[in-house]
Design goal:
β1 (13-16) and β2 (20-25) form a beta hairpin. It contains two helices and four strands. A four-stranded antiparallel sheet has the order 1-2-4-3. The protein is of the alpha+beta class. Helix content is 18%, strand content 16%. The chain is globular and about 45 Å long. The chain has a domain at 13-85: Pseudouridine synthase I, catalytic domain, N-terminal subdomain (Alpha-Beta Plaits, 2-Layer Sandwich).
Length: 113
């Protein structure tokens, strides 16, 4: 991992109720702490500073921005976790690309071996 310089934007709360906290995670911020003190700053740590009961349900990669759902009770965490595990949640990814796109679809994998 290159030098970790996470964005310092304030939390972008999309939704908050008695069971759920939904946050827009910026690109460049870890979802959970990495190994070592230099990778301790992450979204869950920042969230728990303001919402002590917040529990992790899923993660996004460091360089991926997007919506993350946090539970505010063990009950909500268990049921949301089951929904992710059973693939009952719908996820949509959008890629920003640069350059000439040669095909209408693909996996991003090449066979240049």
């Amino acid at each position: 991992m290159n030098h970790y310089l996470p964005p310092m934007d304030p939390l972008d709360v999309i939704h908050l109720d008695h069971e759920l906290l939904i946050i827009n995670k910026p690109a460049g911020l870890l979802s959970v702490p990495g190994r070592g003190p230099l990778l301790a700053d992450c979204l869950i740590t920042r969230i728990q500073a303001d919402y002590r009961r917040a529990l992790l349900v899923h993660r996004l990669d460091r360089d991926t921005s997007g919506v993350m759902v946090f539970a505010l009770s063990p009950y909500a965490q268990r049921h949301l976790g089951l929904q992710f595990e059973k693939r009952q949640t719908k996820k949509t990814y959008i890629a920003r690309v640069w350059g000439q796109i040669e095909a209408d679809s693909g996996t991003g994998l090449t066979n240049n071996s």
